[in-house]
Amino acid sequence: MDSIPYSAEEHLRAELARLLAALGDYLVQQRVRGRTAAADAVGGNVIEDGEAEGLLAQLSVQLQYASPDPVYGNALTVKQTRSVPGAAAQNSWLPLYHAIQAFNLSQLEYDALLLALAVELDSRFGRLIAYLNDHAGKTRPTLGLALAIQTDGERMPLHPPAAVFERPLIRDGLLEVEGEGPGPGLALRLQPEIVRRLTGISALAEGKNVARLHMPDPGLLDQLVLDKRVRDKVQAWGEAIRRDRTGPPLILHGLAGSGRTTMARAAISEARRCL
Fold first, then answer.
1. Residue 182: CA count within 13 A, CB half-sphere
2. How far apart are CA 129 and CA 138, in angstroms?
3. 48/255 Cα distance (integer angstroms)
4. Which among 59-63, 75-79, 179-183, 190-194 has the top mean pLDDT?
5. I want to staple 266 with a disulfide (CB 3.0 to 4.6 A). Which of 4, 77, 146, 220 is the partner?
6. d(CA 97, CA 85)
7. What is the pTM of this model?
C-alpha cells in the first residue's frame, strides 16, 4: 500500500464498518454455541426477537458496509497502518492512525479503542454491545468483548486481561477502565475530549470566532505523555510565570491534532492562570 486513500471521516467510517462486521461474526458465534433469540427476553428483559440482527443491519447500511464502494471495503489494519508512510507526509491527518503510532497499539488494543469510541458516536452500537454483554444496562464494551471479537485473528492471550493496564493504552490515559469484578468484565470508556480528537473534531471547531476559556488544571501536566526533560522545562516555565508575569514566552508548534492546545493548558495551569 503506497498511500492512505482516506480523509479522517472516511477512515473512521471504514474502521467502524470493520468493527461492526466483527461484532456480527461474534453474534453468529453466540448463536452457534446455543444462544437463541427466544432466550434473549429472559436474559436482557428488554431485548426483542431479532433486535440484535436488526441493529447490525441498520448500522451496516448507514456505514455503507454492504456497499461495493472500495473506500469502505478497504479499512486499514494495525499492521497495514504501521507499514504506510506517515499521514502528515501525505497531507492527511488521520487521528486513529496517529493513536496507533503514538500509543503502540496492538490489534486487540486498537479494537478495544474502537469499541469504546463507537458507543460514544451512535446509541445503536451501545444497544448492540449491551446485548452482547448480556445485560441491557451495560452499554459500554468490556475487556472481555474486545478480546472475544479478535478481528485480526490473533490468538487468545494467556496472560490476564488486566495486564493491559500496564500498556500505554490505559497507563497513559487514552482509554479508561471502570467497574469491579474480574478483568474481562471491566468496562471501557473514553473522555469527551479524546472522542473529539479521535473523530478529527477540534475543540475549537465548535464555532468560529469564539474564544474558549480554560480554567487552571494543575494536575494536567502529569497526565501527558512527555519526555522528562520536556516536562521539567514546562514545569519550570510555569513556576517562572507564577513568580513573575513578565517571564519569557513559551512557543508551541506542531501539526494539527498533535496536542498543542492541551500542552498550552498544562503549561498555563502550572502558572495557576487561565488560558
1. 4
2. 8
3. 48
4. 190-194
5. 220
6. 11
7. 0.64
